[in-house]
Amino acid sequence: MTTPDDARFSPNAATRAKAALKRDPWDLPDVSGLVVGVLGGTGDQGRGLAYRLAQVGQKVIIGSRAAERARTAAAELGLGIEGEENAVCARRSDVVIVAVPWEGHAKTLQALREELAGKLVIDCVNPLGFDKKGAYALKPEEGSAAEQAAALLPESRVAAAFHHLSAVLLQDPETEQIDTDVMVLGESRADTDLVQALAARIPGMRGVFAGRLRNAHQVESLVANLISVNRRYKAHAGLRITDV
What are φ and ψ of residue 59, in 5° steps? Predict the structure, then answer.
């Protein structure tokens, strides 16, 4: 009888592990047929991501607490984007991007636990506070917004990405491409590859694997620094990872 340990260390398992290590990290899946839902799609970041993905032919559904507000935003964006109430958006989508305000993050996900079960959820929420000195990072009890999402959605697969994108550039039709890298975090290579592939569909972008979800806090926090950069230099700063 083969025990679990025997299976784990069998020649076939070892061969598969070596093959995975040798795999080209830029060999990414075809995601063009996936339906992408954007929770918080009526906000600036959500609208911008919906617009850019739909622009390259991705099927996109905007979600909002109010279906009418979602449909209005979808009609304004065009490109075949649809608008639905959050629960319907989650049910109809293959992949769901969470772009809601931090203040409503936990409540939104708790309400959609059933609809998001079995789906890949991409969290791009940045827990930030603001005072007279500017933006500063908040640290959730779970460690990060992405880890909070994973705790609230035990039947979903959670990844983190799209944190450092300028909502202004995303929504600007005159900006043909956005020259930036998207740091992607998650527990499964299949999932992070899929998110990288989605990011790479947007002209000028790359998705770059940046670790497990336990490293999401510093990625989310970096947005506070970018806000400071943008204010000082009147810019829409992004990130580039060198030598990869």
Answer: -75, 125
128 half-sphere exposure, CB direction, 13 A CA radius: 23
CB distance 74 to 59 below 8 Å: no
Q: Is 131 helix (H, G, I), strand (E, B) or coil?
A: strand
Other beta carbons within 10 Å of 159:
28
The sign of the dihedral angle between the CA atoms of 73, 79, 85, 90 is negative
* CA angle, 217 then 47 then 35, to 5°: 85
Query: What's the confidence (pLDDT) of residue 9?
Result: 47
Find, among 173, 59, 151, 37, the residue nearest to 105 by Cα: 151
Is residue 195 within 8 Å of residue 221, measured between CB atoms?
Answer: no
pTM over 0.85: yes
Q: What angle do CA 237, 241, 243 make, to 5 degrees?
A: 145
Q: How far is CA 128 from CA 22, 34, 140, in A?
A: 39, 31, 10
Note the pLDDT tens digit of each residue in 48-103.
Answer: 999 999 999 999 999 999 999 999 999 999 999 999 999 999 999 999 999 999 99
Read off φ and ψ for residue 182, nearest 5 degrees: -110, 120
Number of alpha carbons in the 13 Å side-chain half-sphere of residue 124: 28
Task: Give me the amino acid identity at 168.
Answer: V
